[in-house]
Design brief:
The chain has 266 residues and is of the alpha+beta class. 22% of the residues lie in helices and 28% in strands. The protein has one domain (5-32, 39-131, 165-263). A five-stranded antiparallel β-sheet has the order 5-9-1-10-11. A hairpin with a 2-residue loop joins strand 10 and strand 11 (233-236). Bound molecules: zinc ion.
């Protein structure tokens, strides 16, 4: 790969609020007595639930792929990662050059036309105080009983689902977009901001984690901020006041112009 120069990074930050109960699955407790069938993933240090950055990024990617109408059965444009997950991947350089999804969310590094993945999404940790007064069965979670119906016998099989209750707040999420000059002076690089904001909107309108079709996993991005870092200097966009995602999407052209101005070398 020819000269790649980092122009700077764009930070999209804020808090995530669980509007409905949130189930992001962890490893089952197995045969432990009192173990749950469907536990949530927890931070091994604090035992509190958290949202893995990979879950956020993965869902934003799959919704972006779907919104662009990629065909999951097109084997030229899909790649299996892990057991049951297939992602869209542009294998042809010409298609890749036109594809915001692959440029932002990344493609396997062994493909010759791969440029650095632009997007980093960090893990987000629960603020247990946001659940003060909420009903919980375990540490920061509730247990919901669901009847799944056996398709053959029609018998109702009860199962337990552990969820972080509605109203929980996961503060200080960090979505970091790197901007590179790949030889063209950073041409088109700042338009990736719109791809990311759109993916966040798709996620708000869909769900995160399991049981989305049954109402779990509705989240909202709140108290949002945008900043850019050029070298050691961090510059905030539009003052300290927290913004809504819809405000940022409404101002996206202004934000793209501001970031371009801030990060383009003079
Ligand atoms: Zn692509």
């Amino acid at each position: 790969m020819a000269n790649i120069k980092l122009l700077g990074r764009i930070f999209i930050e804020g808090d995530i609020k669980a509007v409905t109960g949130l189930h992001i699955g962890g490893a089952p407790a197995g045969l432990n007595i009192g173990g749950l069938d469907n536990p949530v993933i927890r931070d091994p240090k604090t035992r509190q639930p958290f949202i893995p950055g990979s879950s956020l990024k993965g869902k934003m990617r799959s919704l972006s792929e779907r919104a662009r109408g990629f065909d999951p059965d097109d084997r030229q444009q899909t790649q299996s990662i892990g057991r049951d997950v297939r992602i869209h991947v542009c294998r042809e350089p010409a298609a890749y050059a036109e594809c915001n999804v692959c440029q932002v969310f990344g493609i396997p590094g062994e493909l010759d036309h791969a440029t650095p993945t632009r997007l980093t999404v960090r893990d987000v940790f629960l603020d247990p105080e946001s659940l003060e007064g909420a009903h919980t069965d375990f540490l920061s979670t509730e247990v919901k009983w669901e009847a799944s119906i056996d398709r053959i016998t029609s018998a109702a099989v009860p199962r337990q689902i552990e969820r972080v209750p509605a109203g929980a707040v996961f503060p200080d999420f960090e979505i970091i977009l790197s901007a590179y000059d790949l030889g063209g002076g950073g041409q088109g690089e700042f338009d990736h901001i719109e791809t990311v904001l759109t993916a966040m909107q798709l996620l708000e309108d869909d769900s995160l984690g399991g049981l989305g079709s049954r109402g779990s996993g509705k989240i909202q991005f709140i108290e949002m901020r945008v900043a850019a870092r050029r070298g050691a200097e961090r510059i905030e966009y539009g003052g300290d006041e927290g913004k809504k995602l819809s405000d940022l999407i409404g101002a996206r052209d202004e934000i793209v112009a501001w970031v371009r101005d801030t990060l383009t070398p003079r």
